């Protein structure tokens, strides 16, 4: 997979390193000469150019990319890169970094963004995820379909503990995608049982989040009464 990353700062280079380890072809783009540090990510292609300029994106052959990641520290730049990537080059998947949470509402399909990643929101979500049991934590927002990646750690007293996945009446527009149990990552089947302490990851419509949280957090005594 070919991935272009606009922004070769610490964030962009870190993403590039991870993707290169997974066997992907990476192009890093930045207009600042000081950001071009080929020795830091030598396996990547590098381009000294302004990613907001059509001529630069033509040089980058953006139409050949499967994914574009707008990872600069400027939200305006990330929006422009996302819009150009989607509308001018038809890039199938556009991921954009949100630096200021106040701008998060802009990062949607109208600006060509498929997935918006808010670093401050993600950090706070990870803190919540680490300390919260029984509370739904939103980890990631997907622009298309108004869906979010959410997590809930199943509490000891949950009425669903010991219940098979296939026996649960999940809310509409909700999908259980992963169960993290200790050091294991499980792809859930209908026969798998839910256990107290499981970290459950869902893709869910925002309108269903409260319903999902209520379902998972209901206590045994409440369910029995």
TrEMBL record:
Keywords on record: Ion transport, NAD, Potassium, Potassium transport, Transport
Entry-linked InterPro entries: K_uptake_TrkA, NAD(P)-bd_dom_sf, RCK_C, RCK_C_sf, RCK_N, Trk_Ktr_HKT_K-transport
Domain RCK C-terminal residue range list: 137-218
Pfam family membership, one: TrkA_N
Protease as UniProt keyword: no
Domain named RCK N-terminal: residues: 1-117
Gene3D superfamilies xref list: NAD(P)-binding Rossmann-like Domain, Regulator of K+ conductance, C-terminal domain
PANTHER family: POTASSIUM CHANNEL PROTEIN 2-RELATED-RELATED (PTHR43833), TRK SYSTEM POTASSIUM UPTAKE PROTEIN TRKA (PTHR43833:SF5)
Entry protein name: Trk system potassium uptake protein TrkA
């Amino acid at each position: 997979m070919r991935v272009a990353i606009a922004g070769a700062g610490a964030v962009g280079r870190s993403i590039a390193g991870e993707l290169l380890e997974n066997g992907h072809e990476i192009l890093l783009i930045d207009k600042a000469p000081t950001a071009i540090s080929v020795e830091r990510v030598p396996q990547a292609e590098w381009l000294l150019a302004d990613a907001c300029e059509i001529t630069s994106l033509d040089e980058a052959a953006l139409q050949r990319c499967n994914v574009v990641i707008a990872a600069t520290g400027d939200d305006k730049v990330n929006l422009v890169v996302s819009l150009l990537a989607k509308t001018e080059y038809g890039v199938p998947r556009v991921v954009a970094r949100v630096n200021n949470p106040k701008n998060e509402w802009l990062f949607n399909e109208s600006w060509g963004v498929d997935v918006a990643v808010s670093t401050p929101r993600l950090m706070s979500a990870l803190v919540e995820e680490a300390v919260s049991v029984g509370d739904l934590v939103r980890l990631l927002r997907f622009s298309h379909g108004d869906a979010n990646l959410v997590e809930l750690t199943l509490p000891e007293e949950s009425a669903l503990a010991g219940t098979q996945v296939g026996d649960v009446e999940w809310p509409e527009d909700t999908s259980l995608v992963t169960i993290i149990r200790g050091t294991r990552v499980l792809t859930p089947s209908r026969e798998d049982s839910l256990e107290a302490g499981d970290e459950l990851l869902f893709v869910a419509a925002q309108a269903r989040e409260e319903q999902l949280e209520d379902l998972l957090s209901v206590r045994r005594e409440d369910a029995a009464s």
